[in-house]
Amino acid sequence: MKTRPDYDSLYKIAEAQAGYFTAQQARSVGFSWERLSSNAKTNKFFRVKPGVYRLAHFPGSPYEDLFIVWLRTGQASTISHESALSMYEITDVLPGKIHVIIPRSASHRRPGICLHTNRLRPDEINHRYSLPVTTVERTIADVIAGGLSMEQVRMAILDSLQRGLTTPEQLLAQASRRKGKVEKVIRSILEEKTAK
């Protein structure tokens, strides 16, 4: 017996993802390929990329590219590194690739995406614009470890402190977990700020 498409269930899935959903998620609630295509033709759904759709009554997100990558890499993934900096708007870095932290078991080859398999603690993940993103402190530690320029790191730390996105204590707690270069850089910038 054919399963009927469950629009309410699809709406609940998409609502939690700023209106976006995958073809696989739609299939899980009874939508055949033909039904997806039919809804796209009548503009109930917008096909934003192969296998990724948006409900028509949800506005497009300025972070649509991040939603697409997050949906494609799986809901256990988290936007990170320079992409997270961009979401927090605490530097003027324009990442050439989208950075995502994924579980170690996930696939590692995806064009245009920089995949990281670092472990994340639950308290190192925020939600911003319905997307999971590393916290400001974790993001700053990751970009320091990844070699972002000192000027951009300084800007990220100072802007995030000024805007109340983090505190010196939270930055120092992350620094002490990471040690080495990360700890040295964070402590140095915080000491500079205090000395001024």
Strand content: 15-25%
Instruction: Name the overall outline.
Output: elongated
N-to-C CA distance: 72 Å
Topology, number of strands? 8
Radius of gyration: 19 Å
Mean pLDDT: 92
Number of helix segments? 9
Count of structural domains: 2
The helix/strand order is: HEHHEEHEHEEEEHHHH
- Give the neighbour order of strands across the main sheet: 1-3-2
Low-confidence stretches: none
Structural class: alpha+beta
Give helix % range.
40-55%
Main β-sheet: number of strands, strand sense, barrel status? 3 strands, antiparallel
Put the structure in a nutshell.
The chain is built from 9 helices and 8 strands. With 196 residues, the protein is of the alpha+beta class.
Describe the structure.
There is one protein chain. About 45% of the residues lie in helices and about 15% in strands. By secondary structure, the protein is an alpha+beta fold. The protein folds into 2 domains: about 5-55, no CATH class; about 65-195, no CATH class. Strands 1-3-2 form a 3-stranded antiparallel beta sheet, with helices on both faces. It has a 3-stranded mixed beta sheet with strand order 4-5-6. A two-stranded antiparallel sheet has the order 7-8. A hairpin with a 2-residue loop joins strand 2 (about 45-50) and strand 3 (about 50-55). Helix 6 crosses helix 9 (about 180-195).
